[in-house]
Write a structure and sequence with these properties.
Helix content is about 30%, strand content about 20%. The protein is α/β, with parallel strands linked by helices and about 400 residues long.
Length: about 400
């Protein structure tokens, strides 16, 4: 395989999680009795541009299908994050009724609804029919398509150039990262600003967040790699902020390389220096991740087996993609985790891909009162700790596996 950015032959492995079905390909009662497609889940490192990337096996149109089940609005903390983002960008860039905001990967309108409330014209680009329909129900204009240079040209020709473009947790999801980034350089106005949020590879390695590796994530990103990719495709990084979301993320600000007038903030050089000091531009940094991931898997399996042998019951909460990676890497099945509760009606009544554990409404926790509840989306621990506090009423414990096995 060659690097999807620079074309260098990939020889340095990062992590091998065996094989798994696509993490958002939830099973129905009908498909439960049919074969599943499993793909190798291996990640490699480019020693030229330092882009960390999943090997290509599944087509992106299969991964992001019409019945895509991830809806951003089911997380209260993510809605607060989106509202805060809109407030900050409106203030920083003096956006108003004469401005135009475009969000790429608009999902169910979780973010653009706050721009619309302020009377700011906005447009969402969202390829999955299920979430696009939810966004339109909020009154948001949606272009149902994958984003790249071609679509950017069409939108600019149609008078849809943007003062602000938002791309939250989508840069890692695109197979042709050069075409995707190049579209921003086309659709931005001459002094427009684009922001990209993505989990920071530095924090992924520090926290052994291997469960964020799944087929829908084609890339795992550092500022060092992103800066190179942007420069090649007509963008210039002008600022970077650290965020607590998704276990530690970056928000990168960029402008068109030839016309953007914002100065480059000191934070950019500081973060690049921090990544170099950590060793992210050297091969040794990536070599010991595999055994650290395997220890987390082994510790979780030991906990679940001990619970079963002692007559304790275990359920899980949060039918998240990262949970599917964890369960499938560890080989967990319904004999160890009886069900996964989730607030999203689009997932309820379905089954986790690979493990085939049933997904039920949250009320099932109170009805069955398990001894342990394994929280799969550990990145939402503060929110879920409050939401699921009632588990302690019957002596139950909340458990998480990443970055280490913890009972809380």
């Amino acid at each position: 395989m060659k690097c999807r950015h620079c074309g260098t032959e990939l020889t340095l492995p990062f992590v091998d999680l065996g094989s798994a079905p696509p993490s958002n390909s939830y099973l129905t009662s009908a498909t439960l009795h049919a074969p599943e497609k499993w793909y190798p889940l291996r990640v490699m490192v480019c020693t030229e541009c330092w882009l960390v990337q999943t090997e290509d096996f599944a087509d992106h149109e299969e991964l992001f299908s019409a019945d895509y089940a991830y809806f951003s609005s089911f997380s209260d903390s993510w809605l607060r994050h989106a509202r805060s983002y809109v407030e900050a960008m409106v203030g920083r860039f003096a956006l108003g009724a004469a401005s135009h905001i475009v969000e790429v990967a608009a999902n169910d309108g979780y973010l653009l609804q706050y721009a619309r409330e302020r009377g700011i014209p906005c447009l969402g680009v969202e390829p999955t029919a299920s979430t696009a329909a939810a966004a339109r129900a909020k009154g948001i204009e949606i272009v149902e398509s994958f984003f790249g240079r071609r679509l950017a040209d069409e939108l600019r020709t149609a008078g849809k150039a943007a003062d602000l473009m938002a791309a939250n947790n989508v840069l890692a999801h695109v197979p042709d990262i050069n075409d995707f980034v190049g579209g921003f350089a086309i659709l931005l106005k001459e002094n427009g600003v684009a922001t990209f949020e993505f989990p920071h590879l530095l924090r992924l390695v520090e926290g052994v967040q291997f469960d964020t590796v799944y087929h829908e994530h084609f890339s795992y990103l550092s500022l060092s790699a992103v800066t190179r990719i942007f420069e090649r495709n007509g963008l210039r990084v002008c600022d970077v902020e650290e965020l607590s979301t998704h276990g530690g993320s970056l928000r990168v600000f960029a402008q068109r390389a030839g016309t953007g007038a914002l100065p480059v903030a000191a934070s950019v050089g500081e973060m690049l220096a921090r990544e170099r000091a950590a060793g992210m531009t050297a091969a040794d940094y990536y070599r010991d991740f595999q055994p650290r991931a395997e220890k987390i898997k082994d510790d979780l399996l030991q906990f679940l087996i001990d619970a079963k042998r002692s007559g304790k019951t275990v359920a899980a909460y949060g039918a998240a993609a990262k949970g599917n990676t964890l369960l499938n890497f560890a080989g967990v099945r319904p004999d160890l985790v009886s069900f996964v509760a989730d607030r999203n009606p689009a997932k309820q009544g379905k089954y986790m891909p690979g493990s085939r554990i049933p997904i039920v409404a949250e009320s099932a926790l109170q009805e069955s009162r398990p001894d342990h509840v394994l929280v799969l989306p550990w990145n939402l621990a503060p929110e879920l700790g409050n939401q699921l506090s009632y588990v302690r009423q019957w002596g139950g414990q909340l458990v998480s596996a990443v970055p280490r096995l913890m009972q809380w």
